[in-house]
Amino acid sequence: MDDIDIKIIKMLQKNAREAFARIGKRVELSAPAVGKRVKQLEEKGIIQGYSLQLNHKKLGITTKVYIVLKIHQSSTLKTAYNQIINLEEVQRCDRITGEDRLQILAFFKGHKDLVTFIERISQYGIPNTSIILENS
Q1: Digits of tens for pLDDT over the chain (136 positions)?
Q2: What domains appear along the chain, each with residue ranges and CATH number?
Q3: How many angstroms from the chain centroid is the CA of residue 127?
Q4: Burial letters for 5-34: b for 16+ Cβ neighbours within 10 Å, e otherwise?
Q5: Strands of 90-96's sheet, edge to edge?
Q6: For residue 66, what are the CA distances in angstroms to 34, 42, 111, 117?
Q7: pLDDT at 8
């Protein structure tokens, strides 16, 4: 990987749909040459995929939270993780250090939905919820 690859990656991080021709102008390569480099970065596993950024307000999402769930018994950790990761509201679920715990990032249309969610996951452990006030 060289400086040109790094510049290409940085441009794609800002806009994954950036035209190869526009990237090429910035790095002084043709569009096909940029495409070839991107393909190589994908094949090497450096670029693993592309993501979508959504306007959550327009989707009705008003409440975003982090929940640290202290699992009741370590034998239920895997079960809890496998159930929670597949819930619609869950954006991310990570096993974190300390006692058996999961950290969950979840989005809701309102506080009522959050309460329902907390009640649902409480079967697995004790939740500690932090509402996100601002994010970048």
Answers
A1: 999 999 999 999 999 999 999 999 999 999 999 999 999 999 999 999 998 888 999 999 999 999 999 998 766 899 999 999 999 999 999 999 988 999 999 999 999 999 999 999 999 999 999 999 988 7
A2: 3-43 (1.10.10.10), 63-131 (3.30.70.920)
A3: 21
A4: beebbebbeeeeeeebeebbeebebeeeeb
A5: 90-96, 101-108, 63-71, 125-131
A6: 39, 32, 14, 12
A7: 97
**In this structure, is the dihedral angle defined by the CA atoms of residues 109, 111, 112 and 113, taken in order, positive or negative?**
positive
C-alpha span between 69 and 129 (Å, rounded): 9
DSSP state of 18: -
Give the per-residue pLDDT at 75: 67
- Kindly write down the DSSP assignment for every residue of 38-57, as one continuous string: HHHHHHTTSS--------TT
For residue 4, the surrounding DSSP H or E stretch is: helix 3-14
pTM to 2 decimal places? 0.76
